[in-house]
Design goal:
Number of domains: 4
Strand content: 35-45%
CATH architecture of the largest domain: Beta Barrel
Number of helices: 12
Structural class: alpha+beta
Distance between the termini: 31 Å
Number of strands: 25
């Protein structure tokens, strides 16, 4: 691990500056030495960062600044490696969460943060007509509303160009509205998100993210109590064991098959009626068909099986062949003479892709895990290793008898181990230690 050779610890980071700009002060206020803890959160479902910080107020900050939720915060992060570049992040204080008096003239203040893009979005509205591909429309919305640059997806959506009128929405509301009608040819959804590594907004399909190699393919993260205890005794050293050791683990749970059946993502009947012509198209959704298609396309590996199965039968029929929900939609086609409208024409195939997109979004939570890891890999160089990327994770099986020569596959719990896509990352900087709490999602479990 040459790129981490200058780290003293897998938790290394450097808070270069934490500066607040207030409209009541001509000079920015540097509170770097007063910061006790701060957090930054990235999420696949939010095109902006959020965060919080706790500071020791011994300089009349609260009443001197008269904080009202419009103060700008500039955070500069670095780490002790020659390969790295400083990371500068810009936030707005959204509100004061709480206070705690520690001495008569010293108090701990807990503030919530929202990235400037998120704040500016809430005070912006668009009421405008757009036409083009869905990617082009989202790109124009972000540029017009917030002066943001979009990083386009490698896989374009299958839906055709269209014309749409944004009905007085915020830019991010409008972009997500368009996003909800985008799928790949296999029905995979798209995500609009922001990382700490770039000022750009990323538009990526789940298909693009879930088929990429995990960046730690050769050295998986391992949840091991023995490793954790050894790391506590050797906290001043860094090696592959300490760097990829998982501090804590928890299952984030799943909704179970009953809830999925009630939501119609196992088996359901769909009907779409064009109010202009009165024509109705029907189709049935079956979860088994979706997973078979994903395996045929290589999106789920042949060495994996879906995170749940539908083997249960009722009245001699597989539960995926029962219509546990009937969905009927009304659309109006032919709105424009020369362009498709928001519903891209009366096409049963497109509406089935929409049903697949909703179902896959529900499946992702079936095998979700939460882990806490050392933060050093997340700050090194310019590469994003956070949300939208994949990691290998090894959770040891509950097996006390280990035979000589048994490999990782034999030692691993195949339900909780595997390759996960990172959906959320919360970076915590406290006590000279950078840790990251990740939420990981997957569609397939490795076979025995």
């Amino acid at each position: 691990m040459a790129e981490f050779s200058m780290h003293q610890s897998p938790y290394d980071y450097k808070l270069s500056s934490f500066v607040i700009t207030s409209h009541y002060h001509d000079v920015p206020i540097d509170i770097t030495n007063n910061i006790s803890m701060f957090e930054i959160t990235e999420s696949l479902i939010a095109p902006y960062l959020t965060g919080s910080f706790i500071m020791l107020d011994d300089l009349r900050f609260l009443d001197g600044v008269s904080v009202n939720g419009t103060e700008r915060v500039t955070v500069t992060l670095d780490n002790p490696t020659v390969e790295s570049s400083p990371i500068e992040l810009r936030f707005v204080i959204s509100h004061l969460k709480g206070t705690h008096k520690v001495q008569d003239q010293r108090e701990m203040l807990d503030f919530s943060l929202i990235e400037e893009n998120g704040f500016n979005n809430e005070i912006s509205r668009l009421s405008k007509s757009y036409q083009g591909t869905r990617t082009e429309i989202i790109e124009k919305i972000l540029r017009d509303g917030l002066n943001l640059v979009l990083e386009r997806p490698e896989i374009e959506c299958v839906q055709p160009s269209m014309k749409v009128i944004i009905p007085y929405m915020t830019p991010f509301q409008a972009a997500n509205w368009i996003l909800s009608r985008m799928t790949t040819a296999s029905g995979m959804p798209y995500f609009l998100f922001k990382t700490i590594k770039s000022d750009k907004i990323y538009l990526k399909s789940l298909e693009e993210m879930i088929t990429q190699d995990p960046w730690n393919r050769k050295t998986p993260y391992v949840y091991s109590i023995a490793n954790a205890q050894a790391q506590q005794q050797n906290s001043g050293t860094i090696d592959s064991v300490s760097l990829f050791n998982v501090e804590s683990f928890h299952n984030e749970g799943n909704t179970g098959m009953l809830h999925k059946m009630l939501d119609g993502v196992i088996g359901s009947q769909h009907a779409v009626t064009d109010m202009g012509s009165g024509q109705t198209e029907t189709f049935q959704y079956n979860a088994n068909d979706t997973f078979n298609q994903l395996m045929d396309l290589g999106i789920i590996s042949k060495n994996e099986r879906p995170t749940f199965h539908t083997a249960l039968e009722f009245k001699n029929r597989n539960i995926a062949n029962h219509n546990s929900l009937n969905v009927h939609r009304l659309v109006m086609n032919g709105t424009y003479n020369d362009h498709n409208n928001y519903y891209e024409g009366f096409d049963k195939g497109n509406f089935k892709l929409d049903a697949i997109r909703n179902a896959i979004s529900a499946y992702l939570g079936e095998a979700s895990v939460g882990i806490t890891i050392p933060g050093a890999p997340m700050l090194i160089d310019e590469t994003n290793r956070s949300i939208g990327t994949r990691i290998r994770f090894l959770y040891l099986a509950n097996k006390t008898e280990v035979k000589p020569g048994e490999d990782e596959g034999t030692m691993a719990d195949l339900i909780r181990s595997g390759t996960y896509m990172i959906a959320n990352s919360t970076h915590q900087f406290a006590m000279e230690k950078h840790t990251v709490s990740l939420s990981g999602l997957k569609l397939g479990n490795e076979k025995i």
